[in-house]
Every structure is written in structure tokens, then in C-alpha cells.
Amino acid sequence: MTGARRVAVTSPRTAAARRRRYPATREIDEQTVVGEVYMRSLLRTQFRLALFVCTVLACVVGGLPLSFLLLPDLRGLHLLGVPLPWAVLAGLIYPAFVAGAWLYVRQAERNERHFADLVERK
């Protein structure tokens, strides 16, 4: 066994045409099981994001009256001559909605870009 040589075994068909991959976009277009899994993952991600944004905004909007109820000293404060609860609920809450919407759109577009990268990966 001292004179044994190692030999590399290779296929004679090294120049054979490779089988084309089945693209994920085609899976989605043809509504196959794999395509449904891809779409469900995108929908689940977008739904989680929507639930998160809605929960944060509900906590903020629901927490304001609760904070004014629990901290009566806040009700006596005035902002530019307007009672603080009115100023917060009538004017300052809308920028929070706009910021929440902007963040939601930004994150949703990021999720879609990641999904497109996943599907179009070669």
C-alpha cells in the first residue's frame, strides 16, 4: 500500500449545459406553493409593521387623556394661551400622525426592497 496513488475522478461532461434555475418571480406569477410562501412572507412582514405602527399610535392617543386624568396639574397648564390638553389633542397630535405615517411608508418600502432582492437573487 505504500505505492498507492490518488486519482481525481471527474466527469467527462464538464462543458455540459447547466440547468436553468426556476426564478422566484415565475413561482409567484404562476401561483405555485413556493410563490405563495414568498407572498405570505411579504404580507406577514407588512402586517406586523402595520400592527406595530397602529399600536404605537393607539398608545400615544389613548395615553394622552389618561395622563391628563392621572396628572391633574397638567390640565392647568397653558400653551400660548390655550389649555395644554386642547393644544396637545388639537395641534400637536397631528405631527405625530404624520411622523408615524412617514416611518411606516419608509419601512414598508424597505421591506419591499428586501423582498425584491430576495426574489430577484440569481
TrEMBL record:
<protein>
    <recommendedName>
        <fullName>DUF485 domain-containing protein</fullName>
    </recommendedName>
</protein>
<feature type="transmembrane region" description="Helical">
    <location>
        <begin position="83"/>
        <end position="105"/>
    </location>
</feature>
<keyword id="KW-1133">Transmembrane helix</keyword>
<keyword id="KW-0472">Membrane</keyword>
<feature type="compositionally biased region" description="Low complexity">
    <location>
        <begin position="1"/>
        <end position="15"/>
    </location>
</feature>
<feature type="region of interest" description="Disordered">
    <location>
        <begin position="1"/>
        <end position="21"/>
    </location>
</feature>
<feature type="transmembrane region" description="Helical">
    <location>
        <begin position="49"/>
        <end position="71"/>
    </location>
</feature>
<keyword id="KW-0812">Transmembrane</keyword>
